[in-house]
Amino acid sequence: MDRLERHREAVRRVVEEYASYKPSHGQIESEAVIDNKRDHYEVMHVGWDGARRVHGCVVHIDIRDGKVWVQYDGTSHPVTEELLAAGVLREDIVLGFHPADVRKLTGFAIG
Questions:
Q1: Residues near 67 by Cβ (< 8 Å), separated by ≥ 6?
Q2: Are 19 and 41 in contact (CB under 8 A)?
Q3: pLDDT tens digits, 25-55
Q4: In CATH, what class is 3-103?
Q5: CA-to-CA distance for 44 and 87, rounded, in angstroms?
Q6: What is the secondary structure of 11-27 as a DSSP string?
Q7: Which end is more exposed in the chain, N or C (fewer Cβ atoms within 10 Å of the end residue's Cβ)?
Q8: Alpha-carbon gap, residue 68 to 40, rounded angstroms
Q9: What is the pTM of this model?
Q10: What are phi and psi of 91, to 5 degrees?
Q11: Are 95 and 34 in contact (CB under 8 A)?
Protein backbone atom coordinates (compact mmCIF):
# COMPACT_ATOMS: atom_id res chain seq x y z
CA MET A 1 0.00 0.00 0.00
CA ASP A 2 1.43 3.38 -0.99
CA ARG A 3 1.58 6.42 1.29
CA LEU A 4 -1.58 8.04 -0.12
CA GLU A 5 -3.60 4.87 0.46
CA ARG A 6 -2.20 4.58 4.01
CA HIS A 7 -3.26 8.17 4.67
CA ARG A 8 -6.74 7.53 3.26
CA GLU A 9 -7.17 4.43 5.39
CA ALA A 10 -5.96 6.18 8.56
CA VAL A 11 -8.21 9.19 7.99
CA ARG A 12 -11.23 6.97 7.23
CA ARG A 13 -10.68 5.00 10.46
CA VAL A 14 -10.30 8.17 12.55
CA VAL A 15 -13.41 9.80 11.04
CA GLU A 16 -15.48 6.65 11.50
CA GLU A 17 -14.30 6.36 15.11
CA TYR A 18 -15.25 9.96 15.94
CA ALA A 19 -18.60 9.50 14.18
CA SER A 20 -19.33 6.45 16.36
CA TYR A 21 -19.52 8.67 19.47
CA LYS A 22 -23.01 9.89 20.32
CA PRO A 23 -23.29 13.36 21.87
CA SER A 24 -24.28 13.17 25.55
CA HIS A 25 -27.31 15.41 25.22
CA GLY A 26 -30.11 16.03 22.76
CA GLN A 27 -31.32 13.91 19.89
CA ILE A 28 -28.16 14.35 17.84
CA GLU A 29 -26.72 11.95 15.29
CA SER A 30 -23.03 11.80 14.39
CA GLU A 31 -22.41 11.20 10.70
CA ALA A 32 -19.21 10.25 8.89
CA VAL A 33 -18.98 12.00 5.53
CA ILE A 34 -16.36 10.25 3.43
CA ASP A 35 -15.58 11.30 -0.15
CA ASN A 36 -12.78 9.00 -1.30
CA LYS A 37 -12.76 10.45 -4.81
CA ARG A 38 -12.00 14.01 -3.66
CA ASP A 39 -10.22 13.03 -0.40
CA HIS A 40 -12.66 15.00 1.74
CA TYR A 41 -13.66 13.66 5.18
CA GLU A 42 -15.93 15.10 7.88
CA VAL A 43 -17.81 14.25 11.03
CA MET A 44 -21.12 16.09 11.26
CA HIS A 45 -23.57 16.46 14.13
CA VAL A 46 -27.19 16.69 13.03
CA GLY A 47 -30.34 16.79 15.14
CA TRP A 48 -32.00 18.66 17.97
CA ASP A 49 -30.94 19.72 21.45
CA GLY A 50 -34.28 20.62 22.99
CA ALA A 51 -35.72 23.37 20.76
CA ARG A 52 -32.31 24.20 19.24
CA ARG A 53 -31.38 22.76 15.83
CA VAL A 54 -27.89 21.26 15.68
CA HIS A 55 -26.14 21.01 12.33
CA GLY A 56 -22.43 21.42 12.17
CA CYS A 57 -19.03 20.06 11.42
CA VAL A 58 -17.06 18.51 14.28
CA VAL A 59 -14.03 17.29 12.30
CA HIS A 60 -12.96 18.27 8.77
CA ILE A 61 -9.94 16.63 7.12
CA ASP A 62 -8.75 16.81 3.51
CA ILE A 63 -5.88 15.05 1.80
CA ARG A 64 -4.13 17.43 -0.58
CA ASP A 65 -0.83 16.96 -2.37
CA GLY A 66 0.00 13.93 -0.20
CA LYS A 67 -0.56 15.78 3.07
CA VAL A 68 -3.35 15.29 5.62
CA TRP A 69 -4.90 18.72 6.19
CA VAL A 70 -6.82 19.11 9.45
CA GLN A 71 -9.15 21.93 8.41
CA TYR A 72 -11.25 21.94 11.59
CA ASP A 73 -11.09 20.11 14.92
CA GLY A 74 -14.01 20.76 17.25
CA THR A 75 -13.29 17.80 19.51
CA SER A 76 -12.13 17.64 23.12
CA HIS A 77 -9.49 15.03 22.19
CA PRO A 78 -7.30 16.40 19.35
CA VAL A 79 -7.76 14.59 16.06
CA THR A 80 -4.03 15.02 15.36
CA GLU A 81 -3.26 12.64 18.25
CA GLU A 82 -5.47 10.01 16.65
CA LEU A 83 -3.86 10.54 13.24
CA LEU A 84 -0.39 10.14 14.76
CA ALA A 85 -1.52 6.98 16.59
CA ALA A 86 -2.89 5.68 13.27
CA GLY A 87 0.56 6.00 11.70
CA VAL A 88 0.36 9.35 9.89
CA LEU A 89 3.73 11.08 10.25
CA ARG A 90 3.91 14.50 11.91
CA GLU A 91 5.53 15.93 8.75
CA ASP A 92 2.52 14.75 6.72
CA ILE A 93 -0.07 16.57 8.88
CA VAL A 94 -0.93 20.21 8.17
CA LEU A 95 -2.95 22.19 10.71
CA GLY A 96 -4.99 24.05 8.11
CA PHE A 97 -6.98 25.91 10.78
CA HIS A 98 -3.84 27.94 11.61
CA PRO A 99 -2.60 30.78 9.39
CA ALA A 100 0.42 29.82 7.26
CA ASP A 101 2.82 31.94 9.33
CA VAL A 102 1.73 30.18 12.54
CA ARG A 103 2.03 26.64 11.12
CA LYS A 104 5.84 26.79 11.20
CA LEU A 105 5.63 27.03 14.99
CA THR A 106 3.40 23.96 15.48
CA GLY A 107 5.84 21.10 14.84
CA PHE A 108 3.62 19.86 12.03
CA ALA A 109 3.92 20.37 8.26
CA ILE A 110 3.59 23.89 6.88
CA GLY A 111 1.70 23.01 3.72
A1: 92, 93, 94, 109, 111
A2: no
A3: 889 999 999 999 999 999 999 999 999 999 9
A4: alpha beta
A5: 24
A6: HHHHHHHHHTPPPSSSE
A7: N
A8: 10
A9: 0.94
A10: -75, -5
A11: no
